[in-house]
Amino acid sequence: MVNKVSIGIIGIQGAISEHVSSMNDTLESVNNPGKVIVIKDPLQIDKIDALIIPGGESTTISNILFQSGFYKPILKKINENNLPVMGTCAGCVILASVLIENLEEVKLLSAMDMKVKRNAFGGQKESFECNIRIHRFLKPYNAIFIRAPIIEEVWGDCKILAKIENNIVMARQDNFLALSFHPELTNDIRIQKYFLDMI
Amino acid sequence: MKKLNIFEPKFGTEKIKKGFAQMQKGGVVMDVTNAEQAHIAEDSGAVAVMALERVPADIRAYGGVARMADPHIIQEIINSVSIPVMAKARIGHFVEAQALEAIGVDMIDESEVLTPADPFYHIDKRKFTIPFVCGCRNLGEAVRRIWEGASMIRTKGEAGTGNIIEAIRHQRMVTSMIKKIESMKNDELKKLSEEYCKSYVNSVEILTGKKVDDNIPVFEDYDYASVKNEIFQILKNIKEVYHRLPVVNFAAGGIATPADAAIMMQLGSDGVFVGSGIFKSANPSKRAKAIVEAVANYNKPDVIAEISKNLGDAMVGMEIENIPKEQLLQERGW
What we know:
The structure holds two protein chains of two kinds. By secondary structure, chain A is of the alpha/beta class. In chain A, the strands form three sheets. Chain A has a seven-stranded mixed sheet with strand order 2-1-3-4-12-11-10. In chain A, strands 5-6-9 form a three-stranded mixed sheet. Chain A has a single domain, classed as Class I glutamine amidotransferase (GATase) domain (Rossmann fold). Chain A is built from five helices and twelve strands. Chain A has helices at residues 16-29, 58-67, 71-81, 90-95, 190-198; strands at 6-10, 35-39, 50-53, 85-88, 96-99, 112-117, 128-132, 141-145, 150-154, 159-164, 167-173, 176-179. By secondary structure, chain B is an alpha/beta fold. Chain B has 14 helices and eleven strands. In chain B, a hairpin with a 2-residue loop joins strand 8 and strand 9 (222-223). In chain B, helix 6 (139-147) crosses helix 10 (224-242) and helix 8 packs across helix 10 (224-242). The mean pLDDT of chain B is 95. The A-B interface holds A 11-18, 40, 55-57, 59-60, 63-64, 89-90, 101-102, 105, 118-119, 122-133, 140, 144-147, 164-165, 182, 185-186 and B 4-5, 7-13, 15-16, 19-20, 22-27, 42-43, 45-48, 78, 82-85, 101, 104-107, 129-131, 292-293, 296-297.
């Protein structure tokens, strides 16, 4: 791990402040003097050691990211510096390379070998929280699913880290971490610590 | 098949309901009346649409009793977009709300834009699996709605006018009152929570003809003592923990331009609802996109200036003073 990390959080739309405070808590808990930056401008991408794409509406976030010229610097930083990226919910959708429906509505980063389905559990009435088992986590993790996507299929180097019944809800490929739920909405910071260890 | 753990989902918890509102932050929710408008809203970057039979400007013009939209229209809109769909129920009309939940709406707006149904009580929103958003003019209304289970608050503004003044008034009223309670001592906060409970007490006294004491239920099964105490706890949390409303707070009621949206964001809103402002303007798609961009870039004057160019005519606005007091929508709810 880099001693003093800079973690960028895409600041377009969605649960931005929640990611900022949970990442700050995480840094503090491991005595890392690093900082968390809200990314509002593509030029800021160059200054960070890791990136989080938060939950929100994937259509809104991906379209503004694309139109405002974020994709190019993000992909460049991924290729040249192995930028670690964590995508939660909408962020998970954006990291995927294949989408099951609504193909034109979401612009994908195509960083991970996975196929994603949006709103896979249904609408808000079907949103839920439940305990899940995460690979190598000793205790169950209470995960918050809000109109959540699922990862329908992974291939290549993409590895499954958690499932609900037959649905994949967390996966990792190299420096990329995709979650269909919201670690920023709980006080359990094990996933944030796991991501920090990837940097 | 080997099952290592049993799937035991919990639906409609506070985290799930408030979390939905949190996912809307920094976004624009747009009023739509049919599937075609819903598509335009989605393509323009709306985070959600509000399904209605008429936009507020037309509700004003049409007159009469405004009710929940035809479920068929709402369902068509749900089927035509992938973003969340919200719909409005009348104040206190819990059966309209039940129907909206049954057809799969993602969030209910218990809204003063429709004609209120219950002269005494707002809906007990805790009983629902899906979250509610409610309007407010001041901190008292906001805190009562939050206590009743609202997961999101918006300013009432004055819907259907294209005039931002009331939304700004309501946002400033909430902010300045929060500032005021920051310096209040516990006994002052207790007094304030009693004051904020007055509308419940009044309703019960009218209904029963008796003076309310601590043991009398004033809202559903909640007795006066516990309502007072829980409202006090909300105020204490605002003062000590949040320093703002404890739920997501949007602006609504009169937003017509990108600059209107951006000023509400600069005044502390987490996002905006645009009602008549989009589909009553000359170029809905262009204006919708501009308002979305304005909310994402609310602190960048150069961007706001650029996206405000050549949008065509905004909706025709109304002066608030020219509206007879009994036709003011913000007076509805208490």
